[in-house]
Amino acid sequence: MLRITLPLQNDVAPVPTISRVAIIGGGFTGATIARLLALHGQYCPHEIVVFEPRTDLGGGLAYDTDDPSLRLNVAAHRMRAVPGDPQAFVRWLSRSGRLERDPGAVANGAIYARRADFAAFMAGQLQPVLDSGTVRHVRERVERICRRYGRWQIEADGGASLQADVVVIATGHPPPMPPGELVCHLRDDPRFIRDLSRPGALQAIGQDDKVFVVGAGLTALDATAALRHRRHRAAITLLSRTGHLPQPQAAGDFAPHGDFLIGVPNTALSLLKQVRFALKEVTEGGLPWQSVFEALRHQGQGIWRTLPLDEQRRVLRHLRRRFEAHRFRMSPQIAELVDSERSAGRLRTCAGRIIAVRPGPAEIAIDIAVKPHGTVERHTAQWVIAATGPDQGNVIGSQSCLAGLERLGLLAKDPRGLGIASDYDSRALARDGYPVEDLFVAGPLARGTFGELTGVPEIAAQAERIVQQILAMSFATTRTITIRSM
Length: 486
Description:
Elements: E1 2-7, E2 21-24, H1 28-39, E3 48-51, H2 60-63, H3 88-96, E4 106-107, E5 110-111, H4 115-131, E6 135-138, E7 142-148, E8 151-156, E9 161-164, E10 166-169, H5 180-186, E11 192-193, E12 211-214, H6 218-229, E13 236-240, H7 268-284, H8 290-298, H9 300-306, H10 309-327, H11 332-343, E14 347-359, E15 364-370, E16 375-381, E17 383-386, H12 400-407, E18 427-429, E19 435-441, H13 447-450, H14 456-474, E20 478-483
Parallel strand pairs: 2-3, 2-10, 3-6, 10-19, 11-17, 12-13, 12-17, 13-14
Antiparallel strand pairs: 1-20, 4-5, 7-8, 8-9, 14-15, 15-16, 18-19
Helix pairs in contact: 1-4, 1-14
């Protein structure tokens, strides 16, 4: 690869070198970047283009739902979605009247709003810049991105085609990857629901149909809540490798506890020891253990950056599931539902792995090798739901536009299996290991580099940094020419 940096003439007034930014994905991440760019006032109408097939911007896969049983998993005052205005969402809930119309939102002294409310809040944040024309929303899915005459050529499935100077990939989580036994035996079976994000995914499930859910995280609990809201009353079984459910949120407000950047842990084991010591401190002091995981969340990117790649992989291999059960906690409303359903015997969890699947005319039989001794149990259900979480290792393969960039050598898989490889400036790393200066990776797709990049506050902070970089490129004093041999 050859990189040449040329200074621009000093006697020439700087002119914008960036005339159009294309953002692929209009969920929370993409919408936030579009809004922040527009607010800086450097762009003419339609120079910020967001490709998003959904009707509204800002909701995305996480919040685009009209199901009132689905709530945010964190309190509203922690949804610091607007940089510089951390309480914007809480104020909006009150002023819009949504909080008044949702008496079940308050629990444990905090507000756990409906996800649809957060989507409406974000849509409202975007509306002024859409109305002004500064941001253009193209309701199509991008199929192809390539280089043409030094710019990015973008083509979508509905016929839209345009060129851009900067591309931001903000497509969010890929679809889940169910266990191979399910895919092999239930691939075309209508009783197998492999994508809960599909509209009406649960609609055909009868009130008395038994349901078997593969996965026991927040997605599985969302499915449980949605089914019960639809007056479903039959048994639901949640299967996972550990059998553990997400932990509940703590009551009241509390400060994060623990400084994990002192004596920086540089191995998975040293990190685990520090966390255990901090947990012992807080429990002996009568504080909630959740305060330790809030500190881990706030310091997560710094901790992750200090760990060598091999140690990051050890964390993912040995500690990830335990960490996520405590980091991604369920709202008090979901915790109450889970407790009541388990007490009534209608919700069961089991730990193990699927060893056989036998679809029959009336029921699907699933054999499980149950932990810890491998005893085989047979479960039967009318419906099987995949809730195993996103297939982060196949982000690029799941989207044709990303797969095309990989073939061109301009995109690479994250070596930890967490999405797309990027540097600490959120620029995509090409096959040669060098960053592509005008191609950014935003949101959870960059988790491999940053570690903690799932919550709204962390994504908003990254979005702000990306925007500052794009704005700095707009009036560059040098020009870099990159010649790659792929």
